[in-house]
Amino acid sequence: MSDARKPLDLFWFIPVSGDGRYLGTEQGHRPADFRYLKQIAQAVDGLGYQGVLIPTGKGCDDPWITAAALAPHTERLKFLLALRPGVAQPTYFARQIAAIDRLSNGRAIVNIVAGGNARELAGDGIFLSHDERYEHASEFLHVYRRLLAGETVDFDGRYIKVRGAELSFPPVQKPYPGIWFGGSSDPAIEVAAEHVDVYLTWGEPLDEVAAKLDAVRRRAAAFGRQVRFGLRLHLIVRETEAEAWAAADKLISNLSDEAIAAAQAKFAHDSDSVGQKRMSRLHKGGRRDSLIVAPNLWAGVGLVRGGAGTALVGDPETVAKRLREYQDLGIDTVIASGYPHLEEAYTVAELLFPALGIGRGGEVPSHQTQVGEFGIGGTGRLRAVSAS
What we know:
Mean pLDDT: 92
Radius of gyration: 22 Å
Distance between the termini: 44 Å
Function: Catalyzes the desulfonation of aliphatic sulfonates.
CATH architecture: Alpha-Beta Barrel
Number of helices: 12
Shape: globular
GO molecular function: alkanesulfonate monooxygenase activity
CATH superfamily: Luciferase-like domain
Keywords: Flavoprotein, FMN, Monooxygenase, Oxidoreductase
Organism: Telmatospirillum siberiense
Strand order of the largest sheet: 1-4-5-6-9-10-11-16
Low-confidence stretches: 361-365, 382-388
CATH class: Alpha Beta
CATH topology: TIM Barrel
Domain Luciferase-like: 12-332
């Protein structure tokens, strides 16, 4: 029986910090070379993913410049660009996103990141407390949204003051490029409810995600708004369950206990992010024997990676089933990734897309495989070929 639900929108990830086959080791590491990032973006664009997330932080190459460079090499791909409000004024970022939106013909989105690493934020000149960062983000979005919608803005806030601010070159998308946002704390949920179009959550057990989405819905209703929802996590999909779990084990096979301890200590010391604490709590602060935290939900990535630290692991039908369980909670977009990102983009598209009902709108591939090396045509039927 076919699934009647609308297929999920699936985004991928551009690894501007670097990539590789293993976590926590230099073995097999791939630098964030632009030629490699372009390979990923073009593959994802051709495979039928809806867009890509490009993160921000001192360990990342700049997402906005990267997107501007990648946009001319892609056709359909949307660029979800991480934006840290504290590093520049809303007027500056409004001009930036409007320019990228025009240059990409309406393919730009922003992901608001208030930031959870106090040491890194201090390096960017941001010395606000956790709750103050969300107060600042709210003021930022008040100005940013109105500018992009074409208003002339006067605003006198605690953190942001503008007078007669306006945008001379508007974006393509109306009223403005989409605003996405994630955060698990009460102040973050308040910002999401008042300002954003899509609220993102990391991959947590279903009951925890459900509670978070319900909190956003209730608060958004108080503002007379509705918010859509997205899920950020990793995918490890193979033809069989056994192969998928073997791939998960291989991903952390070169990861030392010392590396895990160092990463977990850094997260605990440097981060005041509620979401990061929730991620670390899933695997009990770095225990290898506590990595399966829900059916097919594996927390091994979070042993050394900050932020999104869970992966769905399994065969295509099982992973599709788990994603639909999140969809039943209200998720309509999944931002996925896998190591290494180039090969895993193909693997996920080839194995998982059919199970999720994701296609390319009936397009027929222009390049068919002839009988011979692979034995069948691109249509899946044997075809005769002339002996020329």
